[in-house]
Amino acid sequence: MINTFLRENRCSSATRKALRVPTSSRAWLSKTYSTMREDNSFSTGCGSDLIQKSASTCDDEKCSSRNVEYTPEIEKKYVHRVYDAIAPHFSSTRFAKWPKVATFLKTLPPGSLILDAGCGNGKYLGLNPDCYFIGCDISAPLIKICADREHEVLVADAVNLPYRTCFGDAAISIAVLHHLSTENRRKRAIEELVRVVKKGGLVLITVWAVEQEDRSLLTKWTPLAPKYVEEWVGPGSPRVRSPSSLMLESIPETDDSSVQSMREVTVNIAAEPEKTQNLNHCGEDEALASRQEKNIKDQQEYFVPWHLPYHRAEVSGASMTALASGLAKKDDKKGAVVYNRYYHVFGEGELERLVSGMDNIIVVDRFYDKSNWCIILEKTC
Fold first, then answer.
1. For the whole model, what pTM was predicted?
2. Do 102 and 127 contact (CB within 8 A), yes or no?
3. Which of 112, 271, 308, 339 is positioned for an S-S bond with 169, CB 3.0–4.6 A?
4. What digits encode the pLDDT tens for the residues 7-42?
5. Residue 369's Cα: distance from chain center in Å?
6. Residue 223 in contact with residue 295, Cβ under 8 Å?
7. 144 CB-side CA count, 13 A
8. pLDDT higher at 202 or 272
């Protein structure tokens, strides 16, 4: 049934709803893709009509494709593992629909097939009752939440979407690309969104902006020095560090809105936070504030904390494992297990630059909405 449905380019909304994937198929898909995502490779066996395996025409292209599809350690540890651990609590906080995303989905023609790449807990799936939705996400626990809500979903990676070319009428990527740690992977994710929609299909992408409306939020995020990001994004990473190098998990996350949390992350400052505070007391407030403002302006790589309340953390042993491994830490003052999530926040014009070299799309709209940069693309061929 599933292959018959997936071979169809167009069918009525009623027909699509009649061909819903049974629960057993959803379970099989989630299990299958959970296993596949470990090395980001997709077999061409059962379900090959659904699975799009990248085909390159030369060795250089194959090598480049593999490098982009390889999941960097920083994403595995500070995106995949974190969202797997916090999925139920994260889902409980994700129910409000962004008005402009809702407007986009509600204005699509009836019977449209909409692909949600990075669907999370599925809050946008089924938003337009006249359209058919299929969602995917890298987090198996989030996909399970979606499946329990009777959504059509599967586990898959945003840089290697498991759909045939020209499959959907529209695609959305809401707050996903900022979790990808290299420009090539972010660009590849956009190319995949464009690939899987038909000619004339629309793609909506939203990402967190570095230009936050509430600038105080930046004081609650931990900036990553470029050298730490570089060590964690390459194949085979993390690379061997010298004894003096600072491990990512030892960079302190803080909710303190003091000057210290606005610091440039360097080994010396991380090791001697008191020194930064003392400088303020020595009459260097103005110079330090100027440096901090420049650092904030130029900084785009952050750890953003997620506070999982103790009573939530007790539901699963995942938090105990995370604490033991250093992935998370306790905050007894707040009564929470604190996880750090990796973000690359986007600057103005960055989305447009990523799509500027793509000759099969036009930019229909671009806008700033609630501390997010957003873009709507139309596939032209």
1. 0.71
2. yes
3. 112
4. 333 333 433 333 333 333 344 344 433 433 333 333
5. 18
6. yes
7. 10
8. 202
Owner of token pair 């905050």: 331
Beta-bridge partner residues of 304 = 341
Answer whether 80's CB lies under 8 Å from 72's CB: no
- Rounded Cα distance between 315 and 158, Å, is 29
> Alpha carbon of 239 to those of 81, 162, 225, 303, 311: distances in Å?
20, 31, 16, 20, 36
Which tens digits make up the pLDDT trace of 185-213?
Answer: 999 999 999 999 999 999 999 999 999 98
For 337, counting Cβ atoms within 10 Å of its Cβ (0-12 exposed, 13-18 middle, 19+ buried), the class is buried
Residues 6+ apart with CB under 8 A from 211: 347, 348, 368, 371
Q: What radius of gyration do the chain's Cα atoms show?
A: 22
Distance CA 180, CA 74 (A): 9
Among all chains, which residue has been given the structure tokens 């129910």? 95
DSSP 209: B
For residue range 103-112, list pLDDT tens digits in order.
999 999 999 9
